């Protein structure tokens, strides 16, 4: 298929990652896959990149068995030696960090600086895990029985299932994988179907390290697939621990994807504006910690909204690989539809769009970062989880009411507060930034 991006000269680096036109999406010591073929698309232009053959339920059953057998071998390897292999994985990722970052941008759509930063997070956790592999211990505790002592000893749990979402298709796996490995666990990874290529590329790197060290590849198994595979993992008692990242609807009891920020009248607005902007539009609003609701004290509401709208007007939208760009496309066409539906609902419920609200007239899944004001705190759209760059700005009078509003939604991953009132800080019990700067993650810089 000459129309695939993988066959175009400017994307030759995809083949350097071991990818082909059609890739096998199951790894359990060997590569395979007997499920449907899924083509992934570049959200910046909606052109096909390459395809991945997904897992069938038979593939899943076979992989579970191989992973459980591999775990028996891995659990007996001394922790420092497990750490040495994780160190090699980190080094192997370092060597391919730019190509892997480019693939995240190509397949997911986030800007290149964020994408490389995501691979770096996996590398950083590998470094942390290496040190931890020589520090896993347990205290010697006194016993109430004469002549006895209590020893606390940590043991591997077995097989760790890791289900990741499209918006962080590498980092979330890395956080889990590196720590699980040094603890003596085997891993089974199911990434999002729309970002299957990065799952395959990362697994190829990890698999090579395992094979070079003559340990079973199934220690880090991969099973690309859809909801049927995810459901099988969730229900399978052979999966001893399951890490899930995804929507509230899918996760049900897993409450994610909302971040709230409170800005009081004594806040330093020089920190508020860039922080709120990056929190709301980073990864085009497709982060677990994206700022969805911004609570502003009534005395500074209008000033902040005006400054924020001016800051939004300076956001550079475009090609995720352009280093001057801060904001890329949404991941899929369906995401664009959800964005438009949410904007319309916000208007119907009494909100005013003070910035954005439209699709950008260019190829790809681009929408304008959007600010909505005038909605009540309990409007249904405000409580709805829309994975898009829409910021609902809400006005409050008192500390008590805004803290209550923060807690009234079903979702919630993190919250922040801007104030210089020490009493308020400790009543909130947040994490404190005591500097006068606001360093952003993954090397992102606002000029």
TrEMBL record:
Domain (Aldehyde dehydrogenase): residue spans on this chain: 38-433
Keyword Acyltransferase part of the UniProt annotation: no
Substrates-to-products reaction catalysed: (S)-2-amino-6-oxohexanoate + NAD(+) + H2O = L-2-aminoadipate + NADH + 2 H(+); octanal + NAD(+) + H2O = octanoate + NADH + 2 H(+); an aldehyde + NAD(+) + H2O = a carboxylate + NADH + 2 H(+); (E)-4-hydroxynon-2-enal + NAD(+) + H2O = (E)-4-hydroxynon-2-enoate + NADH + 2 H(+)
CDD domains reported in the protein's UniProt record: ALDH_F7_AASADH
One Gene Ontology term, aspect cellular component: mitochondrion
Subcellular location as annotated: Cytoplasm, Cytosol; Mitochondrion; Nucleus
Keywords: Acetylation, Cytoplasm, Mitochondrion, NAD, Nucleus, Oxidoreductase, Transit peptide
Enzyme category, top tier: oxidoreductase
Biochemical pathway: Amine and polyamine biosynthesis; betaine biosynthesis via choline pathway; betaine from betaine aldehyde: step 1/1
Record flagged with keyword Mitochondrion: yes
E.C. number: 1.2.1.3, 1.2.1.31, 1.2.1.8
GO molecular-function terms, A-Z: betaine-aldehyde dehydrogenase (NAD+) activity; L-aminoadipate-semialdehyde dehydrogenase [NAD(P)+] activity
Pfam families attached to this UniProt entry: Aldedh
Coiled-coil regions listed in the entry: none
InterPro entries: Ald_DH/histidinol_DH, Ald_DH_C, Ald_DH_N, Aldehyde_DH_dom, ALDH7A1-like
UniProt similarity note: Belongs to the aldehyde dehydrogenase family.
Functional note: Multifunctional enzyme mediating important protective effects. Metabolizes betaine aldehyde to betaine, an important cellular osmolyte and methyl donor. Protects cells from oxidative stress by metabolizing a number of lipid peroxidation-derived aldehydes. Involved in lysine catabolism.
PANTHER family, alphabetized: ALPHA-AMINOADIPIC SEMIALDEHYDE DEHYDROGENASE (PTHR43521:SF1)
Subunit structure: Homotetramer.
Full protein name: Alpha-aminoadipic semialdehyde dehydrogenase
Species the sequence originates in: Chelonia mydas
Classification lineage: Eukaryota, Metazoa, Chordata, Craniata, Vertebrata
């Amino acid at each position: 298929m000459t129309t695939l991006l993988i066959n175009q000269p400017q994307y030759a680096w995809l083949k350097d990652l071991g990818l082909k036109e059609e890739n096998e999406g199951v790894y359990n010591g060997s590569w395979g896959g007997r499920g449907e073929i899924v083509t992934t698309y570049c959200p910046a232009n909606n052109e096909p990149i390459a395809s991945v053959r997904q897992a069938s339920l038979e593939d899943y059953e076979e992989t579970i068995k191989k992973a459980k057998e591999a775990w028996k071998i891995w659990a007996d390897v001394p922790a420092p030696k497990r750490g040495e292999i994780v160190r090699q994985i980190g080094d192997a990722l370092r060597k391919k960090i730019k190509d892997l970052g480019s693939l995240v941008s190509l397949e997911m759509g986030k800007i290149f600086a964020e994408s490389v930063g995501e691979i770096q997070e996996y590398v950083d956790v590998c470094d942390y895990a290496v040190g931890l592999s020589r520090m896993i211990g347990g205290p010697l505790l006194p016993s109430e029985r004469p002549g006895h002592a209590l020893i606390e000893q940590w043991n591997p749990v077995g097989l760790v299932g890791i289900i990741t979402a499209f918006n962080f298709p590498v980092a979330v796996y890395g956080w889990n994988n590196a720590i699980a490995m040094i603890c003596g666990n085997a891993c089974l990874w199911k990434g999002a179907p729309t970002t299957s290529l990065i799952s395959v590329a990362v697994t190829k790197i990890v698999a090579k390290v395992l094979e070079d060290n003559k340990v079973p590849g199934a220690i880090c198994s991969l099973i690309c697939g859809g909801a049927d595979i995810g459901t099988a993992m969730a229900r399978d008692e052979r999966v001893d621990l399951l890490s899930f990242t995804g929507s509230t609807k899918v996760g049900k009891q897993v409450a994610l994807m909302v971040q709230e920020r409170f800005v009081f009248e004594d806040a330093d607005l020089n920190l508020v504006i860039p922080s709120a902007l990056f929190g709301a539009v980073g990864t085009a609003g497709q982060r677990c910690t994206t700022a969805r609701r911004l609570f502003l004290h009534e005395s500074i509401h209008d000033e902040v909204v005006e400054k924020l709208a001016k800051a939004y007007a300076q956001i550079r939208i475009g090609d995720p690989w352009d280093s001057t760009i801060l904001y890329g496309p949404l991941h899929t066409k369906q995401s664009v539809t959800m964005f438009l539906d949410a904007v319309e609902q916000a208007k119907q419920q009494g909100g005013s769009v003070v910035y954005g609200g439209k699709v950008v007239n260019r190829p790809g899944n681009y929408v304008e970062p959007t600010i909505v004001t005038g909605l009540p705190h309990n409007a249904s759209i405000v409580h709805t989880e829309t994975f898009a760059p829409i910021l609902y700005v809400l006005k409050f009078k008192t500390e008590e009411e805004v803290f209550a509003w923060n807690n009234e939604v079903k979702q919630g991953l993190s919250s922040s507060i801007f104030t210089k009132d020490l009493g308020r800080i400790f009543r909130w019990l947040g994490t404190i930034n005591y500097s006068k700067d606001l360093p952003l993650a993954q090397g992102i810089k606002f000029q």
